[in-house]
Amino acid sequence: xxxxxxxxxxxxxxxxxxxxxxxxxxxxxxxxxxxxxxxxxxxxxxxxxxxxxxxxxxxxxxxxxxxxxxxxxxxxxxxxxxxxxxxxxxxxxxxxxxxxxxxxxxxxxxxxxxxxxxxxxxxxxxxxxxxxxxxxxxxxxxxxxxxxxxxxxxxxxxxxxxxxxxxxxxxxxxxxxxxxxxxxxxxxxxxxxxxxxxxxxxxxxxxxxxxxxxxxxxxxxxxxxxxxxxxxxxxxxxxxxxxxxxxxxxxxxxxxxxxxxxxxxxxxxxxxxxxxxxxxxxxxxxxxxxxxxxxxxxxxxxxxxxxxxxxxxxxxxxxxxxxxxxxxxxxxxxxxxxxxxxxxxxxxxxxxxxxxxxxxxxxxxxxxxxxxxxxxxxxxxxxxxxxxxxxxxxxxxxxxxxxxxxxxxxxxxxxxxxxxxxxxxxxxxxxxxxxxxxxxxxxxxxxxxxxxxxxxxxxxxxxxxxxxxxxxxxxxxxxxxxxxxxxxxxxxxxxxxxxxxxxxxxxxxxxxxxxxxxxxxxxxxxxxxxxxxxxxxxxxxxxxxxxxxxxxxxxxxxxxxxxxxxxxxxxxxxxxxxxxxxxxxxxxxxxxxxxxxxxxxxxxxxxxx
Length: 609
Hints:
Structural class: mainly alpha
Strand content: under 5%
Low-confidence stretches: 1-15
Mean pLDDT: 83
C-alpha cells in the first residue's frame, strides 16, 4: 500500500505525528503536480494532432516540450511510488529471513535509495553547472531538463526520511542516510583492480539490492555508481546523463497515456460492459465464468495495455463471482492471474513500446505480431481451463437479444481498440498520438458516465505515478545497458551461439534459456531493456525475423508474471484477494504450462518460417 493511502489517524498511531502530516501534505502537492503535468502533456499532444490534420500546421518544439514534461512527470511521480508496489521491490527473500534481521535488511535496502537520491541530486547539479547552451526549439537552458531529475532525487530523500519517521523508524533511517552518504563520498576515492568487467559487478551489486528488497530502479542506479570503484567508464555525471537520455524519447509518452486510458475505462464503467459481453458469448459453456474471465482479458487487453491493471480489475471483479459459483478461491485467483498475462501481449502493449524503444523495431509490426501471439496464448489457456475446471455452476445461456444488446453496449470499448491499433498500423497517427487519442476518448467516456472531478483526478494521478515508476526504471536501466554494450556481452552471446552451431534453433534455445533465468528476478521492463538489444543481433544473424523474435521476448518475459520469486501478477492478485501468494503459485501451474506450450509453438514457428 502506498504511504499516501494511510489514514492520518493511523499515521499518528505509528509515530507519525508532525512527520506524517508533512508527508501527507507533500504527497498531496506532488500528486496534484504530477496529474497536472500529465493533463498538460495530453492537451499538448492533442493540439498538435489537431493542428496537423485540420490546419496542416504545427508548432516548433512540441516534441521537445513533451520530452521535457515527461522528465518532469517522472521526477514528480517517483517519490510517490517509493513505498508502494510500484517501487518494484523483490521482498520475497527479505521475508524469508529471520524476523530479527528484518530491521537490518530494511536499513540496507534504504541505503540503496539514499545513494540513488544523492546520485540524482548531486549528479544532476554537476551536469547543470557543466552544461551550457539553450534548446534550439524551446529557447530555454538545456540544464533545466537535468535539473528536473535532480530535484526528483532530492524529493525521494525527503519522502523516504518522512516515511520512516512516520513509521517510528527515525534511528534506522538516520543510519541509512549516514551509510549512504559515506558510500557516496568515498566511492570516487576507491580503486579496485580485478580482471572481471564492470558490468558483472554492476549486476552483482544490483542483485544484492534486489535480495534486500531495494526498489529495482534504485538498485540499478546505486550499483552503477558503486562500480566506479571497479573501473567503470561511467562517472557520476554520465550515469545521470544516461538516465535522463533513456527517458528522453517521445515514444515513451505513450505509456502514461495508455495507463490513463485503462484507468478511465475502468472508472467510467465501460470495462464492465466488456464483462457482460464476454459472459453473453461464453458464459453458458463448461467453466463458463472462467472462460468469461479469459475473454474479458482478451477484450480488455485492447484497452489498458497493462497486465497489472488487468490483474487488479479481474481480481476485484471476477474473484467473488468465481468463488460464489463453486471455484476454489486459489484456483479462481490463479485463473485471473494467468489470463492477465495477455494484456501486455495483445495490443496496445506497454512491453512492446519498451522493446521498440530499446531496439528500434517497428511498433506497428510488433503490435500485429502481438495479436497473433495473444490469440495463440488465449487458445492454450482456454483449453487448460476446460480441462482443469469441472462441476461449477454454469451461467444461463444468453438469448440472441441479450447478446446483441451486450454487443451494442460494448461498442464504446471496442472503439478504443480501433483508434489505437488501426491508427498506428495504417500510419494515420504515431504511437504516442494514438495513445493520446485513446486517453482523450476514454476521458469523454468518463464525462459521459458523469465521473466527478475527484474520480477524474484520481485516474490522472494514478496514471502519472505508474508512468513515473516505469519511466524511472527505463532511465536507470540505461547505465547498465551501456556497460553491457561496452563489455561486448552481445558479442559474447554471438560467439556462444556460433559455438552451438549458429542455427536458428541454437539462438532460440539459448535466448529462451537466458530470458527464463533473468525473468525470474528481473521486472519485464528491465529485462527487455537490458537483453532485447543483446539478443536481437544474434537472432537476425541466424535468419530469424526480428519482429517475430521480439514477440517471443515479450511472451517469454510476460510468463514470468506467474513464476516465483518475483511473480508480479501473482502478488497483485494476492494483494487484492488476500489469498497467500504461495497458494497461488501452486494453483497457477496448469495455466503456466499452457502458456509455455504457446511459447514453444511460437519458437517452432520462428525456426520453420
